[in-house]
Amino acid sequence: MSDPRPSFLSLCPAEPFRIFFPLATLLGISGVSLWPLFFSGLHKFYPGQMHARLMTEGFLAGFILGFLGTALPRLLSAPPLRRGELWTLMTLYLAAAGLHIGQQSRAGDIVFIVLMLCFGACMIARVRGRAELPPPGFVLVAFGFLSGLLGPVLWLCGGQGWVPGSVMMFGSILLNQAFVLFPLLGIGTFLLPRFLRLRDVRTMAEERTASTGWWLRAAFSFATGLALLGSFWLEATRPAAPAANWLRTLAAIVYLAAMVPFHRQSLPLRTAPLAAQLALLALAVGLIFPLFWPAQRIAGLHIVFLGGFSLITFTVATRVVLGHSGNEALFETRLPSLQIATVLLLAGAALRAFGDFSPERPHWLNAASYAWMLAAGVWGFSVLPKVRFADPAGDLSCSAHRELRSK
Hints:
Oligomer: single chain
Radius of gyration: 20 Å
Largest sheet: none
Helix content: over 70%
Shape: globular
Distance between the termini: 39 Å
């Protein structure tokens, strides 16, 4: 008898997270491992740029593309990716990562720009044929996409001397910070109320129609995006001035406080919602950090990346994988792998920040790297095998979306 279950490859076009999430995790481990390899003498070159590109264009980009490629067509009630579209995106994604690993950073950035253009074309086609509106916070997702596209363009133009150094630096900040911060805020304010059960189904349904409330929240998201862009520009043009950090910190915190009704949550918290809130707390701490230690801006950025971006990435990915493999009930349990990953990532963020204050910096950076890789390994070993299995119920949309469509 033939196996009635759909094959893994047949699931991937409609649910690209199944192939993007595992590859992104491997690229993240590869990018972090560069530091122990360098400090041990096995790698002779300083891996700063390769590390940054593998973590941004590899690890984080893989999770962003996998999530949006799965969720956005469903949220719009639009057709999923076609097989040819998926494999084009996957080829470009792996090619960009391979070029960075081969120390061809310029070529890698060019391929990543092509990847962003192709992904944008795929999503714009779905937006045009949509039957529903995306959540209003996804205005910031659009800001993130544009940051990931324009950032490497400006960086490459600066390398050719076509734009001033401040514009080149602005491009670097767009790619390495804005490309992730914008989607985190936009997606986070959509998912976190569902994690914490802070809104009822009627409220969620109102977020999907062209109501006055939708337009107000979208306008607020747009204004927040402009404020954050202004902070990135100030950082690029006036790096010694504290205005950029103040503006960014206030904009992000005010946006989260206004869009997520934390005051409605009830205790006790489950593992995943607690991890998400700890990630947002780490994000806030990392943004605030340079206000008190302006000379240690890089330490603050690593708190944002390790404790904020990485932790929220693994938390959201857990929800996606479990919800699309018939294991949604596990999201309500203790999730030991996510608990371990949370502790390790927060410890790694603390170790990495402390390392910039210590004369024994390589030892602390090594410790932070091992903590991150162990967190990714534990999480991946427990969660990623489930990407092979379809939801046996046959409805591949997330639980919140199923609730909305049933109304």
